[in-house]
């Protein structure tokens, strides 16, 4: 915000929103993991905040993607105009589904885990459509964008995170 355009520069606001969500979701997650042992009710409430913060991070990512990595040929298209509103809807649905899944843990643990995984995978996949299109374009046109390597690493880490969350590795190998 202290850069060349200052706070009046509209290009800095999506980055600030994204960075804010980058700070909020680890804070909410660490609070959830710290205070969830107080009681069953506290556990649910703490994880509700954790899921909401993670969904907000997804929305922050969508804002940043919309502002900075949308392909030029997609700018001002119907998809571009609907992208952020759909991301807001995804945030609400993802938070609701992941919170609801906590009530199913005892009766249907597999369905609970599957719905919670879906609640976070779907918004990630939707938010990443412009990024995946960039990957495709760079394969076809063999571009040399220096940020592409970082995007590949970020995507690999996201898929690794999903795999670890869904498979419960390594804690499955040594329970307790």
Automatic annotation (TrEMBL):
<keyword id="KW-0675">Receptor</keyword>
<keyword id="KW-1133">Transmembrane helix</keyword>
<dbReference type="GO" id="GO:0046872">
    <property type="term" value="F:metal ion binding"/>
</dbReference>
<feature type="transmembrane region" description="Helical">
    <location>
        <begin position="83"/>
        <end position="103"/>
    </location>
</feature>
<comment type="similarity">
    <text>Belongs to the ADIPOR family.</text>
</comment>
<keyword id="KW-0862">Zinc</keyword>
<feature type="transmembrane region" description="Helical">
    <location>
        <begin position="47"/>
        <end position="71"/>
    </location>
</feature>
<keyword id="KW-0472">Membrane</keyword>
<keyword id="KW-0812">Transmembrane</keyword>
<dbReference type="InterPro" id="IPR004254">
    <property type="entry name" value="AdipoR/HlyIII-related"/>
</dbReference>
<protein>
    <submittedName>
        <fullName>Membrane progestin receptor gamma-B</fullName>
    </submittedName>
</protein>
<dbReference type="GO" id="GO:0016020">
    <property type="term" value="C:membrane"/>
</dbReference>
<keyword id="KW-0479">Metal-binding</keyword>
<dbReference type="GO" id="GO:0038023">
    <property type="term" value="F:signaling receptor activity"/>
</dbReference>
<dbReference type="Pfam" id="PF03006">
    <property type="entry name" value="HlyIII"/>
</dbReference>
<feature type="binding site">
    <location>
        <position position="33"/>
    </location>
    <ligand>
        <name>Zn(2+)</name>
    </ligand>
</feature>
<feature type="transmembrane region" description="Helical">
    <location>
        <begin position="15"/>
        <end position="35"/>
    </location>
</feature>
């Amino acid at each position: 915000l202290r850069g060349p355009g200052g706070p009046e520069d509209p290009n800095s606001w999506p980055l600030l929103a994204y960075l804010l969500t980058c700070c909020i979701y680890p804070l909410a997650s660490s609070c959830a993991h710290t205070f969830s042992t107080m009681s069953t009710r506290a556990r649910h409430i703490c994880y509700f905040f954790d899921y909401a913060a993670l969904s907000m991070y997804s929305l922050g990512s969508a804002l940043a993607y919309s502002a900075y990595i949308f392909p030029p040929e997609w700018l001002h298209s119907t998809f571009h105009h609907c992208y952020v509103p759909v991301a807001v809807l995804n945030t609400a649905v993802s938070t609701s589904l992941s919170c609801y899944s906590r009530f199913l843990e005892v009766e249907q643990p597999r369905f609970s885990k599957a719905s919670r995984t879906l609640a976070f995978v779907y918004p990630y996949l939707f938010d990443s459509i412009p990024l995946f299109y960039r990957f495709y374009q760079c394969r076809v046109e063999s571009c040399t964008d220096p940020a592409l390597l970082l995007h590949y690493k970020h995507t690999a880490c996201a898929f690794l995170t999903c795999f670890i969350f869904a498979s419960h590795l390594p804690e499955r190998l040594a329970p307790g």
